[in-house]
Amino acid sequence: MKMSLPRDEPPGLDIASLIDMVFLLLIYFMVTASLIKSEGDLGIKLPGSISQSVSVDMPDEQVIEVRGSGRVYLNGREFDAAERTELPELAATLDRYRQASAAARNEALITIWADDETAHQRVIDVMNACAAAGIVNLTFAASGSD
Predict the structure, then answer these.
(1) Cβ–Cβ under 8 Å, residues 104 and 51
(2) For residues 134 and 91, what is the distance between their CA atoms, to the nearest angstrom?
(3) Does residue 52 contact residue 100 with C-beta atoms inside 8 Å?
């Protein structure tokens, strides 16, 4: 027996549900996307001030004298023993000077003046004390006599 099937139209694609899905995805991404940075994420640093309890009267530039005997003087005041390679008193004073200069918004400047007879190691010891205090601006003065 021969059966005949009814002829239907060719199969097609129903795009109505696809369009609904695209609109739902579009709405979802528009809602979840943030175009403006929230205020809590802004990194703001406000300026501050440092107050000193005791004022430090120090000149703009400090002069460190290194004598041939190994003695170290900062503005005429002797620091540490001549035989010590580490200069903790000098480093502590220079650190206070650097902090006072930073509070006054000045640059900490150090001039090293050494005698002709001074050992190079002693000058390096003074430079190490400056580095320990965080001072990087060093200049050297030459003696006036030949």
Answers:
(1) no
(2) 9
(3) yes
Q: Which domain CATH number covers 124?
A: 3.30.420.270
Residue 24's pLDDT is 95
Place of tokens 């540490």: 80
Whether 56 contacts 106, CB under 8 Å: no
Query: Is 137 in contact with 108 (CB distance < 8 Å)?
Result: yes
3-state secondary structure of 102: helix
Domain carrying residue 94: 61-141
Q: Which residue has the higher pLDDT, 21 or 86?
A: 21
11's tokens: 């199969």
Q: What is the pLDDT of residues 76-116, one digit of tens each?
A: 888 877 777 788 888 899 999 888 888 888 888 889 988 88
